[in-house]
Specification:
It is built from no helices and eleven strands. The strands form two sheets. Strands 2, 4, 5, 6, 9, 10 and 11 form a seven-stranded mixed beta sheet that branches. It is globular.
Length: about 130
């Protein structure tokens, strides 16, 4: 059964850091580009970052550029999102998703482009 499972969320003080993990099962993660999204209450889902199969291509939304870093370990079938300098506006449910191909760009970071999603992990940064 194809599955993506996010973990690593939690409550963190402003300026703190978290590392989210996206573990895949039922398919070979290394064959697909992976994206990270988030959705805050009352807001649309926002594409944050995506990484190609080899990790050579990484893209970021302006809202997280310079603070978040996406990476992957294909041997562990896992993609990571390192989040530093967290702000209250980063509070959201964070999701990883599988693209249909090996590459992705910020122009492809749309919900409809990604076919498989995890259940999400909550990140809370109090003000």
């Amino acid at each position: 059964q194809l599955q993506l499972v996010e973990s690593g969320g939690g409550l963190v003080a402003p300026g703190g850091s978290l590392r989210l993990s996206c573990a895949a099962s039922g398919f070979t993660l290394g064959n697909f580009a992976i994206g990270w999204f988030r959705q805050a209450p009352g807001k649309e889902r926002e594409g944050l970052s995506c990484i190609s199969t080899s990790g050579s291509s990484r893209n970021y939304a302006d809202s997280v550029k310079g603070r978040f870093t996406i990476s992957r370990d294909n041997a562990k079938n896992t993609v990571y999102l390192q989040m530093n300098s967290l702000k209250p506006e980063d509070t959201a449910v964070y999701y990883c998703a599988r693209s249909p191909g090996q590459y992705c760009t910020m122009s492809t970071m749309r919900e409809t482009y990604f076919g498989y999603w995890g259940q999400g992990t909550q990140v809370t940064v109090p003000s």
